[in-house]
Amino acid sequence: MSMNWQSRRSDLNPTGRLLTHLASASVLAATLIFETKASAYIGEGSSFLEFIPAIIIISYLEDRGPALAATVLMVAAGLWTRSTLHGQISGEDWARAILLLISGGVIAMTFHRLRQDVRELLEVAEARLAAVEATESRYRWAFERAAMGFANINEKGELLQSNRRLSEMTGYEEDELAQLQLETLVHPDDRDALAQLLAGLGKDSASFASEVRLLRRNGSAFWARLTLSLSVPDGVLSETIFVVVDDISGRRAVHEALRAQKEWLDLALSAGRLATWRIDLKDGIVTGSGAFWDILGLPPAGSRRLEELSAVVHPADWPKLAVSRKLASVTNYDVEIRVRRPDGHIRWVALRGREEKYDDRLQRLGVAADLTERRQTTLLRAAAKKRERIMLEQRHRFINLFPVITALVNMVNVPENNVARYKETLIDRIRSLEATHLLLSGNSSGSGMLHDLVVQELQPYMGTREISVSGPSVTMSGGAAESFAMIVHELATNSLKHGALGDSKGRVEVNWTFASEDAVGDIAFDWVESGRRRPSKVVRHGFGSMIIGVDGAPLVGHSPKLEMTDHGLRYSLRLSRKEIGP
């Protein structure tokens, strides 16, 4: 559409150019006739000024050349007329002619310059108009083919123009949309939101957005983000409002699914009494759910510095929160820490999750669970089992106590029918047996010597039987000493009932040595009996057999071995120094 002035002049039809030339010629002719008559009737008093209007008209109609030629012609005609009528040309006439010639030239040049300026302005205007039309064409192309719906509405909400995408969204044709109001497309429950958007335009802001439900032509609804914009050119409000419609049904569906999953996750965490947490190891920032801070006994907070947790985490467990030195991109994280709550109670807390890098930042995230009740239950069960074992052992010892006492009575002969001496000897044996029994029933935190435990158990039988005890000095911790004393007690009880201690000619040898040259290796313990054994069962497959390890692992030590013949018995046991050491 760009077109310069010369092309516009050249586009004039020949008839138009001819009429222009005829008009200029007519003005020139009329002026010349008027000047001739004026010179004849007025005389020398006439001037050349009457030619100026004609020059102006011709300069307006024609270009610079014809206007200058007409001026020269007028001057020449005026001078000829005065010379013919008056016989001479006065100095004033020459001055007027020169002035007219100058005035005509100025007028012709002025109109020529004005015509050039107008031509340049038209060229600039046409270039700008072409740019505007190109921009409008691109805008209209984008408007029609945009991936989002576009429309223009007036302040009353009437649709003035819409694009193809909005028609596809709503199912209406473009001409049908032009007959509707925007409110008609909005779900009834969301029309108040649209009214608020329209009311706020131009007051609070020039643009508002809201998520509303729009109705299709078939009556179904879909979620859309509605953005209303009001342009303000030169401080004057535009009469139209630009509307952008973005279909967010898929996004809303995903959002609702995520919200439902979060609710299910929160319900599962709540049912399992779990809490979520995350530690940014680079900045040392800890974030967690309300349940997490409640487990730690701290008030709810958005985040805390990792160092703040040192006030509640047990010092022995604080290193478990240190940064892992593993270079793997993802590392499982599973630790249990103790937490001291403000009320002084110690709680066991499990932190399970993973340690990973995200955006070059090392972090931990996972769930937390309070294990205190489970720990207490485990300890109570262990204590109950230990008590049950102790009661079973006490019961077994109590049952064996009477045969031992009976055997002691039978073993002690009445010396020279001295009953008093017999009673004294019998009481000494019983007191020795009582000492061993008190050792096994005493405080398990004390330690004892291996030699003392063996001698104390065999003390009631020394002097009446041939017994030897030998071995290096070995100290045993309380629990190991009690368990070992029970093994020696079981061997002595069995020997009294069926073996060497029950035979007046029997012999018992007890010795132990280090299995290696250093004093940190295992200790080899041997119990050897020689003499006639009674033909009855020598070892019951019950609690006693469990103690010495015939039916499994012994109470203390390892690798038990029992060898029996009609004329003796040998029991071997290995005691680990790490196991029995104090």
Automatic annotation (TrEMBL):
> Which Gene3D superfamilies does this entry report, sorted A to Z?
2.10.70.100, Histidine kinase-like ATPase, C-terminal domain, PAS domain
Give the keywords, sorted.
ATP-binding, Chromophore, Flavoprotein, FMN, Kinase, Nucleotide-binding, Phosphoprotein, Photoreceptor protein, Receptor, Repeat, Sensory transduction, Transferase, Virulence
InterPro entries (UniProt xref)? HATPase_C_sf, PAC, PAS, PAS-assoc_C, PAS-like_dom_sf, PAS_fold_3, Sig_transdc_His_kinase_HWE
Q: Which residues form the PAS domain?
A: 135-205
Q: Which PANTHER family match?
A: HISTIDINE KINASE (PTHR41523:SF7), TWO-COMPONENT SYSTEM SENSOR PROTEIN (PTHR41523)
Every copy of the PAC domain together lies at 208-260, 333-383
Q: What is its EC number?
A: 2.7.13.3
Q: Provide the taxonomic classification.
A: Bacteria, Pseudomonadati, Pseudomonadota, Alphaproteobacteria, Hyphomicrobiales
Q: What name does the UniProt record give this protein?
A: Blue-light-activated histidine kinase
- Under the GO molecular function aspect, what terms does this record hold? ATP binding; photoreceptor activity; protein histidine kinase activity
What sort of enzyme, by top EC class, is this? transferase
Q: Which domain of life is it from?
A: Bacteria
* Catalysed reactions, as listed in the record: ATP + protein L-histidine = ADP + protein N-phospho-L-histidine
